Amino acid sequence: MTSREDWIVVYPGNDAGEQFIESLIRERLPFAAAAVNEGQRARLARSGVPCLSEAVDAALPRSRIPELPIGRVYLFEDGLPACCRLIRLFRSWTGRPIYVITQGSNFRAIYREIGADYVIHTNGSDVSFLIPHENHIG
Fold first, then answer.
1. pLDDT tens digits for 79-111?
2. Which residues pair with residue 10 across a beta bridge?
3. Residue 75 belongs to what domain range?
4. Is 22 within 8 Å of 128 (Cβ atoms)?
5. Using CA atoms, how far apart are residues 8 and 21, in angstroms rounded to an integer?
6. What is the C-alpha separation between 6 and 8, in angstroms, rounded?
7. What is the pLDDT of residues 21-57, one digit of tens each?
8. Cα torsion at 30, 36, 42, 48 (round to 10°)?
9. What pLDDT score was predicted for residue 91?
10. For position 102, what pLDDT does the model report?
11. Which residues, in sequence order, are CB contacts of 12 under 8 Å at separation 6+?
12. What is the pLDDT of residue 119?
C-alpha cells in the first residue's frame, strides 16, 4: 500500500503511459515522470508534469536518488534496454512495487528477474485500473 506522502513515478514510454499520466492528473495523485531524452522532457514540461530528468539522466554514471518519497513505479515499455535500465534504477530507489506495462510478452521473465514486481500485458491504452486510490491529494 502506498502512503499519503509517497509519490508515484511514471515512465511514459508509449501512448498508454501518456494516458496514464492524464489519469493521475485527473485523480489529483502526487506523481513525477521519468524522462530519458530531450523530447520526453520537453513534452512533460509543456504539460506541467514534474519530471525526474536529472535523476534519470543516462549520461550520469550513478543517478541521484530523488528527494521526494518514492512509492509505486509504473514503467510503460518502449524497448528492452531502456526498460531494463529503468527497472534497475527504480529498484535502487524504492522497495515498493514496480509495474511494467507492455504490449508484448517476450521479456516478462527478464523484467521480473531484474526487479519488476508485476509485468502487465495489454493491447489497450487505458490502464487507469492500475491507479491506486488510497493517496489522493485534497
1. 899 899 999 999 988 999 999 999 887 899 999
2. 33, 74
3. 7-130
4. no
5. 10
6. 7
7. 999 999 889 999 998 888 888 888 888 898 886 656 6
8. 0
9. 92
10. 93
11. 18, 20, 21, 33, 40, 44, 76
12. 95
Whether pLDDT at 122 is above 60: yes
Q: How far apart are CA 26 and CA 57, in angstroms?
A: 28
- CA–chain centroid gap for 41, Å, is 14
pLDDT for position 69: 87
Please report, for the domain that includes residue 96, its CATH number. Answer: 3.40.50.720
**Separation between Cα atoms, residue 25 and residue 19, nearest integer Å:** 10
Rounded Cα distance, 31 and 21, in Å: 9
DSSP H or E stretch at residue 43: helix 38-47
Closest C-alpha to 30, from 68, 75, 86 = 68
Number of domains in the chain: 1
65 found inside a domain: yes
